[in-house]
Amino acid sequence: MPTRKKIGLIGAGNIGGELARLCANRELGDVYLFDIAAKENFAKGKALDLEQNGSILGYDSNIRGTSNWADLEGADVLIITAGIPRKPGQSRDDLVATNLPIIRDVANNAKKHCPNAFVIVISNPLDAMVYEYMRVTGCPKGKVAGMAGVLDSARFQLFLAREAGVSVKDVRAMVLGGHGDDMVPVLSMTTINGVPATQFIAKDKIQSIIERTRKGGGEIVTLMGTSAYYAPASAAVAMAEAYLLDQKRLLACAAYLDGEYGYKDLFMGVPCIVGGNGVEKIVEIPLTEEEKGMLAKSAASVQGIVDVVKKS
Ligand code: A3D
C-alpha cells in the first residue's frame, strides 16, 4: 500500500498545471491531474512534463494525467479548478451558467470516489461553487473550503508593501467576505509586523489600494485575456499544505457559516484555523462598524448568486 498522500487536481488547465508543479516541488504527495475525456492526453502530457521536471529539480512525486475518476479513489486532498475562467469584460458571476453543471458533475464523482478528501474549490463564482459542492455531496462543513481569501489578502499585502517601501514578508492583512468586488480588506487588523499600516501609508492611499485589491483579478484578466494562475495556485497549496501537515494555520478561507459573524447557510471568506481536520475553527475577530457594513454588503452579493444557483 502506498503511504504517500494522494492529491487530486480536478482541471488540468492553467491553475491545475501550476498546482501540480507546486505540490510535486514541495513533495506533498503523488499528484493526479484530472480533466475531461477530450483533454485526457493534454493532462497526461502535462503530467509527464512535470514528472520529468522532477529529475532536474529533485522531487520524487508521481504525477499522472487522467480522465478516469477511478484513478482518484481515496484521494486525501482534492483541489477543484474545473470550469472556465473569465474573459475581459466578464464578471465572475457571468460564469455561473457554464460552471454550475461542471461543479455538480465534479461533486457527484468526488462524493463517490473521494468521500474523505479535504476539498478546496477554486472555480468561480467561488462562494456559490463551494456552496453547491457541499450541497451536492453533503460532506461535513470542515472538509470543504473555497480558496479566495489567501489570494485576495496576498494582493492587498503586495500593494501595501510596495507603497510602504517594506518587505512583503512583514505585511499582515486579511481580506474577508465574498470573492467579488465587494470583498472586505480588514484595515483595522492590517499591520506591518504589528505596527498599524496607517502609520506607513496615508488613508487616501490605502483606500485606492483597497479598490485595486477588489479589482485585482479583473486587472490581470484585462492584461492577460484570462485569469491569474500562479498566485491562485500558491494560495490553494498553502491551504492544502496546512491540512496535510496539520499546521493549524490562520488563513482567510471561504468557509461554511452557521451563525458565525451573524450569517447562516452561506460560504464566505472568514479567518479559519486550517489543520489536519480541515477547517477546524472559524475565528471571529472584532470588526469596526464600517467593516461590518462592508461584510453585510458582500454577504448580500454572495447570497444573490447562491439564490440563483439554488433555483437552477
Ligand atoms: P483553465 O485553464 O480553462 O482550466 C480549467 C480546466 O477545467 C480545463 O482544462 C477544462 O477542460 C477543465 N474542465 C472543464 N470541465 C471539467 C470537468 N467536468 N471535470 C474536470 N475538468 C473540467 O482555467 P483556469 O485554470 O485558469 O481557471 C479555473 C477556474 O478557476 C475558473 O473558473 C476561474 O475563474 C477560477 N479562478 C478562481 C480564482 C479565485 O481566486 C477563486 C482565481 C483564478 C481563477
TrEMBL record:
| Cross-referenced Pfam families | Ldh_1_C, Ldh_1_N
Q: Where is the signal peptide?
A: none
Q: Which top-level enzyme class is recorded in the Swiss-Prot or TrEMBL entry?
A: oxidoreductase
Q: What is its EC number?
A: 1.1.1.37
In this chain the Lactate/malate dehydrogenase C-terminal domain maps to: 151-305
- Sites binding substrate sit at 86, 92, 124, 155
* Span of domain Lactate/malate dehydrogenase N-terminal: 6-146
Per UniProt, NAD(+) binds at: 11-16, 35, 99, 122-124
Show the InterPro entries listed in the entry.
Answer: L-lactate/malate_DH (IPR001557), Lactate/malate_DH_C (IPR022383), Lactate/malate_DH_N (IPR001236), Lactate_DH/Glyco_Ohase_4_C (IPR015955), Malate_DH_type3 (IPR011275), NAD(P)-bd_dom_sf (IPR036291)
Give the catalysed reaction(s), semicolon-separated.
Answer: (S)-malate + NAD(+) = oxaloacetate + NADH + H(+)
Name the residues that span the membrane.
none
Q: Which domain of life is it from?
A: Bacteria
Quote one Gene Ontology molecular function term. Answer: L-malate dehydrogenase (NAD+) activity
Q: Which UniProt keywords apply?
A: NAD, Oxidoreductase, Tricarboxylic acid cycle
Has keyword Metal-binding? no
One BP term from GO: tricarboxylic acid cycle
CDD domains (alphabetical): LDH-like_MDH
Keyword Metal-binding among record annotations: no
Which residues are the active-site ones?
179
Membership in a protein family: Belongs to the LDH/MDH superfamily. MDH type 3 family.
Physiological role: Catalyzes the reversible oxidation of malate to oxaloacetate.
Q: Which NCBIfam families does the entry link to?
A: MalateDH_bact, PRK06223.1
Official protein name in the record: Malate dehydrogenase
Identify the species of origin: Labilithrix luteola
What would be the name of the gene that encodes this protein? mdh
